[in-house]
Amino acid sequence: MKNKNISQIVLERIKGEKIKPISRRIFYIKKVLFWTVVTLSLIIGSFIFSLILSGLFNNDWDLYDRFGFNFIMKTLPYFWLGSFLIFTILGEYYYRKTLLGHRLRYVIVIGFYMISTIIFGSIFYFVGIGDVLEKSFIDISPVYRNIILNRINFWSQPEEGLLSGIVTKIGNEEIEVKDSNGLIWSVNINGASNRNQVNLFVDEKIKITGDIIDDSLFVADEFRSW
Amino acid sequence: MDNYPYAEQTDNELVRLSLSDPNQFLYLSKRYEDKLLRYITRISKFSRDEAEDVLQEVFIKTYYNLNGFDPDLKFSSWIYRIAHNETISAIRKKVARPTVSLDSEDLKNFTDSFDLSRDLDKSFDRKLINQALSKLDDKYHEVLVLRFLDEKDYVEIADILKKPVSTVGNLILRGKKLFKEEYNKLIINKNTK
Q1: Span B103-154, pLDDT tens digits
Q2: What is the location of CATH 1.10.1740.10 in chain B?
Q3: Which residues pair with A210 in a beta bridge?
Q4: Contact predicate B145/B129, CB 8 Å
Q5: By the CB < 8 Å criterion, does A23 face chain B?
Q6: Measured between alpha carbons, how far is B136 from B177 in angstroms, rounded to an integer?
Q7: A105 contacts B52? CB cut-off 8 A
Q8: Which residues of B touch A21 (CB under 8 A)?
Q9: Which residues of B touch A3 (CB under 8 A)?
Q10: Which ipTM did the prediction report?
Q11: Considering only the top CATH level, what class is B104-192?
């Protein structure tokens, strides 16, 4: 297969059109960016997994018998599960963009990512980072508190015997609790069991099971800390 | 074939030299000129002139991105990847269905690789081999060309096509099977006419 002297033509074009190679720095920055995104996805994914564990371990599983499968559906940390999925896809996508990222099958890359985030996320949870993160989110973000955290929604069903809120006043047999909608409830705690030996004080966030009597009166069977 | 200065230099050394002096790029491009021109014509329906135009763009793009070449990858895989992408892009612009055009050497490589003499027990028919290859889906077609005509190994093919190595293995296996089926069908059709 004999052809024109293409290499010579190309060289003349390079010289004639003054073509210069793109700066090495651009490729270096691109490479660093891809690996940064991959690493960040792994770290953030691990934090998210610790939040998922926090959500699962802190869930009130003793109520499963009362509410059944509906309890799981209502209290799963969907936002964090969704975020975990998004960061897994992001990590996999950008890993594939790295120089040799294409050599491994998708399932292996995703599997490696998930196993790594599960291991690191579990470590983060067991050293207490998951709980600290969740409490921080609850404190700083009203959005997180009201929408993202299903547990609050679950515990805001007084007609179902579930009430939660901040203690605003403490009496001998009755306390006042402000729920997530800002409503003040009078809660009769006479005879109610104190599930995890909560020391009641003003501004303490608690969860209460019992029965609704009227629009602002609730009789507690049991109360527990948030 | 390297009857020019720097014949002893590796591709990576020539890349380094080309970056400091564009004239050295001539030796690098010369090294790949014939191989890539054959590759482009094998995976496209292009005439010689069209293939040469594509090849020019391949070399320009290679030079333009020379700083982006990472020695963790073989230079040949990298430049084949550029050639592959540029050819596919040119095919799309032309809206042409890629096909294969085999010369005598190609034909021998291909039939040897496939054990066609044993499996098919037929004398080789270049026209039918071309037809059978052209009937294959692009994904099988391109791996078969790279494996059996350009004699690339699985990792190189994976690097050129940016596909997982195991996927390349599966595509080659399936592609061989489909090729033999197509070829058999064409032989039977020919014999019944």
Answers
A1: 666 666 666 666 554 554 445 666 788 788 888 998 999 999 999 888 899 9
A2: 11-94
A3: A220
A4: no
A5: yes
A6: 11
A7: no
A8: 19, 63-67
A9: 33-34, 37, 48, 52
A10: 0.78
A11: mainly alpha
